[in-house]
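Task card 7
Instruction: Convert sequence to structure tokens.
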Amino acid sequence: MPHNTHSRLFVLDTNVLMHDPTAIFRFHEHDIFIPMVVLEELDRGKKGLSEVARNVRQASRFLDQLMRGANKQEIDHGLPIRPILEDGNTPPAQLGRLFFQTRHLPNLLPDSLPGNTADNNILGVALALQEEFPERALTLVSKDINLRIKAAVIGIHAEDYANDSVIDDLSLLYSGAAELPPDFWDQHSKTLESWQEEGRTFYRLKGPEVRNWYPAQCLFMPGDEGFEALVRSIEGDTAVIEMAKDYRDPKHAVWGISALNREQNFALNMLLDPEIDFVSLLGTAGTGKTLLTLAAGLQQTLEDKRYGEIVMTRITVPVGEDIGFLPGTEEEKMTPWMGALMDNLEVLTRSEGGEWARAATDDLLRSRIRIHSLNFMRGRTFLNKYIILDEAQNLTPKQMKTLITRAGPGTKVICIGNIAQIDTPYLTETSSGLTYAVDHFKHWAHSGHITLRRGERSRLADFATKML
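Output:
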């Protein structure tokens, strides 16, 4: 291995490539070392239809392309890493070098790490390289917290793979709402224009605050007669905003449901807006995400006839686990994972007509609501559908893209989830597909986002959330 003291040397764990196959292109001018045990683990993980298996196969293809035409001597001296474009060509700019373990390295692991496990083999390789090249800054990169802990114990610098993070800190995530300053109208009154169209009130204004807004952002001023509006368009420092409809008024109830706070009102405005094709709702348990989404879906599907049917889906945990072992049809197989949606449907379909009316309502819903597994979404196109993706925080960015790109003409996609409850291994709050979607869609005029902050489930649930 060349003694290049100007660049760092990164030793990659298997789970980094399983999580992001393009990781080998993400280390700029620095060198990458892949232990032989990592290649063996990749080989064992390549089979199946899960997202992890697909990532492993893609990582292997990248490695194969980088090694194409190289002889043993070139591999020993490190392969130049060049970004591989979709058309197969490679740009001239060279990054670092890729090294494979081509020889046996001495075992310098302490007696405190017994056994011949894959993690310990990776630690042994990193320790031997650190001993052999003391002048180089070596870092072990792993998504496995326990491996990073063991590395620190034996004196190896270890880091999480952070290139997949959408934002540096969750507090920086776009909330979807902005509070206007008390002197807002004084600053913008000189250029203010207002008009009405079909009962809707619009304002065109120009001023310093506009440049900080996003399309479809929710604006509000607190108070007894608080102002609530949504941004409709932005051009430079000029914006058009529309007064939000008040769904807290029982006269404007949506399928029998009224908004209980400001955020819920904004959520219903976006869910019922035909100009908004993608809506993301974040919030803790009991904030009303699923209930509001279903109410808006039933209203627009059964009453307004805007969509042909409602499609409910969510990722099954463990991620990518085949549902084939469960009995019944696809919808029956998905039932164990759709409890939250079913509970909310029961609330929304209460009937005063006794058992016969309830049975008729259930038959109607079964004809207009479909439950699908994400495992079978690839290659499909949904036309004129109202798609609800529950527990979206458990999706990777790639899975999120796969789902959203299934939407055909006339389809609306709603992603709901609690970013603090991620069950997918190696996925974090800052690298979740839901975080990815919120951050990337905030500049698009046909998308909307709001973070629901106030729980409305019950006083017992509110107390438990605060005290337990």
